[in-house]
Give the backbone structure.
Amino acid sequence: MEKKAGIKFYLGMVVFVFLTLFPLLWVLKMSVITASELQQLPPKILPQDITFGNYDTIFSDTRFQRGVANSVVIAGFTTLICLVFGSFCAYALARLDFFLKTPVLSLTLAIAFFPAVAIIGPLFLQFTSMGIINTYWAAIIPDVLFALPLTIYLLVAYFRELPVDLEQAAKVDGATTWQAFTKVTVPLSMPGVVTTGLLTFIFAWNEFLFANTFLGTPLTQPATVVIPNFATIYTTDYGAQAAAALVVTVPLVILVMIFQRRIVSGLTAGAVK
Amino acid sequence: MAKSATAGTAHVPQGSRGMPWSPIFRELGDPEKRTAYYMVMPALLLILIIAFTPIVYSFVLSFQETIPGQSSTWVGFDNYVNMFQDPDFLTGLTNTAVFTVASVSFEFSLGLWLATALNRGFRGQGTMRSIALMPWAFPTVISAVMWRLMYQDGVGIMAYIAETIGLYTKPILTSEGALMVAAILVDVWKTTPFMAILLLAGLQTIPEDVYEAARVDGATPKQSFWRITFPLLKGSILVALLFRTLDAWRIYDLFWAMSDRQLDSLSTYVFTGVRISQLDFSLGMAASVFIFLSSLAIAFIFIGALGVRANKA
């Protein structure tokens, strides 16, 4: 295995980067050009006439505003609940030894393999009879279930990295396990909790199946459900659709750039060990 | 910790000895272990109540003729018989199978190739990694919307390219065959870099001196790939392939958002029964069970075929 990277290697990388980023850049271009330029054939590589009209259209569309706000509410609550329950569970799995440890780990892993679509029927009946269909809860509850394994795995990896001495010192001084967790581990692991929270947030932000099944009204539908419908609302106003798609992805692009190292180590921890 | 464990054993109630759950009762006498149980309880209950109760309920519903909110009668295997005779289901099954096999094999071979290429020291590794992660971090439906704009005839760059080089001159978004190819391409774009990152992480755990030793012994690069890299990478390959295959097998959002509901998959079939035509609710439940069991089968096949014990991951 040669380890030196030559010209050919960098050329290959350039091609790879180009192919990966191309759709994003092209849609960005589509979103800032005029409707007449959009129709021009052959298309020009660079935008000729930059306009932000499409963004005005999208931002003043109440359906879009509502969708983004709903996404924030659903993803926000999902993240919060996952972090609370997930950190309890992750701490027990990372630091404590108990008989049911392996079964609990396997069960959370099983959820990652679980086909979500197999339970939408029963959940639909249940949510309907409970009267929470079309409310935020109908999306948050299943979102929490499927985001929880991710939260737990990332936090277990993080808690294991923390030195155990401080918790032990606290216990020697008479703290209970619970106190050691809340007073020592949680404050110390804030950076890890924040990263995990961001990843959980992205996960919930991207969710579509449950939202599309359980939320039948624009009042609670998140952006992932609203934006595909723009194809029928804005029909040939492709620029506006491009702008809408970009607005909800750009924050994710920024988050990924900031947290890439942590994301990779969190995601591969299970796979490599 | 070991000390408190023995302290806990002292409280064993005599009668519970020998029962499979007796260690739990023993542990509940130990304050630290009791805390552990309290701490995993919320997550555990949530998983059991929201995932496992409904899946059992899905099995029950699949043997009933149900009209949501009205009636249900026991019909045995009728739903399954009807489902396998329903052309919509068969189309969904075929589409799902084609999509899964095509997208996963492209993503895996391209990803492995990319990972081996990237497995060396070079400048800008962090930047490469962020770029590779981007398509993966996008919501699938939004990627579908972006690509649909590029496939749109008249304005889309992909449609333009396909037409210019004479590959495909009709509108892509109205033909099922072209849509399938287009959807596979989107999935390959979205997931190959992610696959590469997972495999690269596995490659990086293989120590360099193993290759060194093989080279000294006269191994060709091909030999060292098949004799060293591949066996040592098995675990990572298993995990990556398993996740990808199961993910592709439940394809829903990509088909839904890109094709204006023209492309059926197993999952869109279930969705139709639950949300669109409630007369098909029971067929949808049979399909739910089918997806669940086939996913389980896929998982077992992978774990068996690669000869890696599941609990190793």
About this structure: The CA atoms of residues 151 and 159 of chain B lie 5 Å apart. Chain B has one domain: 81-312. Residues 1-16, 309-313 of chain B have pLDDT under 50 and may be disordered.
